[in-house]
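Fill-in record for Phosphoribosylformylglycinamidine cyclo-ligase.
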Amino acid sequence: MSGTTYASAGVDVVAGDRAVELMKASVARTQGPEVVGGFGGFAGLYDVSVLKDYRRPLLATSTDGVGTKVAVAQALDVHDTIGADLVGMVVDDIVVCGATPLFMTDYIACGRVVPERMAAIVAGIARACEEAGVALVGGETAEHPGLLGADEYDVAGAVTGVVESDELLGAEKVRAGDVLVAMASSGLHSNGYSLVRRVVADAGWAYDRHVEEFGRTLGEELLVPTRIYAKPALATLATGGVHAMSHVTGGGLAANLARCLPADVTAEVDRSTWTPGAVFSVVRDLGQVPTDDLERTLNLGVGMVAVVAAEQAQAVVETVEQTGIPAWVCGEVRRRTEADGSSNGKGIAGGVTTLRGSHQGW
């Protein structure tokens, strides 16, 4: 009788090694001369002498995952797009303070290592890192049999960037009279999937169902990757008019915009300046989801907002649109009054966001 082995316990070391081999080429494409050392070390190394010309560099960091969107990828057996969601969620969280992303690490936990599946996930992460201009310097793939199902996995990542201290964006620079420039989302991005999955499950919709409003299947729509705003958002800084930015993630537009406002102002968003995409109206109608719940959960078509000086608003809009992302003025910042109530930011004592009017075509 043979003894218990790691393989019999559910961990396949050979498959893990094979997965690493398949990842190497994708990861290498993200790395420039600042990345030091070979692939597979205990730690990723980055040569920060590239920061020597900064007067007072501040490092910015963020970590996140993509939530239950991974369940859709697993159900459809499509794994090469979820990496873009991961990169978008972490990179755009540091871009909003004006930071240029430098390097990123990722973590994949799975019930069973399928080398081709792991390589597809990492290839998606690497492609998105290239788009964002960030080096993928390392990662970890962990096999957790008994904790996760054989075909289940979850992904997480962390990114580090840098910003000059006197160029830091944030609430301190926002003033009454500033305007709000919206940047269109590509769809649901990576938030609210617990709501969306419940709606479609209750309706009995399968992921391979063709949805006329989408012009493709439900599954294809739900897997549209999170838009990566890193380069377009940073390009707007050259206008000299950007004071703050908000990445619209969990909590919706109002809560996330309030996070980048000082306590003495209110951001008024005019819903009539845009029409949310079909995926939002389908979720609303299919699940009879109340509007206020939609607005607290989904981005409703706006993935990033820049708070800018009024005289530079058009320049910011044009800079973003030159990259192929629709952008528009969606509101303004005014002095806060008692009638505006308390801050609706996510756990902070910041400003207030109010939404007025109705979306076109809604």
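KEY FINDING: The CA atoms of residues 200 and 253 lie 23 Å apart.
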